[in-house]
Write a structure and sequence with these properties.
The protein is built from 6 helices and 4 strands; from the N terminus they run βααβααββαα. By secondary structure, it is α+β, with helices and mostly antiparallel strands. Helix 1 (about 15-20) packs across helix 5 and helix 2 (about 35-40) crosses helix 5. The relative contact order is 0.22.
């Protein structure tokens, strides 16, 4: 009822994304434009919130914030339909894999705040 534009939510346990649910590491989506556009800023919710605090969980996930990580539990991805939600989940998992793999090679360079603002204007993300 809070998010009438959401028609699909996937709750999943993809292995690379779950590494961020099980640790204190942040999954920063500012790797490539597609990741930021589809995922935005990913928030972490406390373990158990899906059944102990359903109102809080519903207020955290929206089309402006379509992906949340539930600590030690799962990844929740919202979309306008099942394909849209799955596309977000796929981009998240490959982004997580890229972040984990890249750390073995050195520093990860991210999109700057200025470039993020340009993406938000160009793709009407506000």
């Amino acid at each position: 009822a809070r998010n009438p534009d959401i028609n699909s939510i996937i709750v999943a346990h993809p292995p690379y994304s779950m590494a961020f649910a099980l640790t204190d590491q942040e999954l920063d989506t500012r790797l490539i434009p597609e990741a930021y556009i589809l995922l935005r800023t990913i928030h972490k919710l406390p373990f158990g919130c899906t059944f102990l605090q359903p109102d809080m969980t519903a207020s955290e996930i929206s089309m402006r914030n379509p992906v949340v990580i539930v600590e030690n539990d799962s990844i929740m991805v919202a979309g306008t339909d099942l394909l849209n939600a799955f596309d977000r989940l796929e981009v998240m998992e490959y982004s997580a894999k890229a972040l984990i793999s890249a750390r073995l090679m050195g520093e990860v360079f991210k999109i700057s705040d200025k470039e993020i603002k340009e993406l938000e204007v160009a793709f009407h993300l506000d």
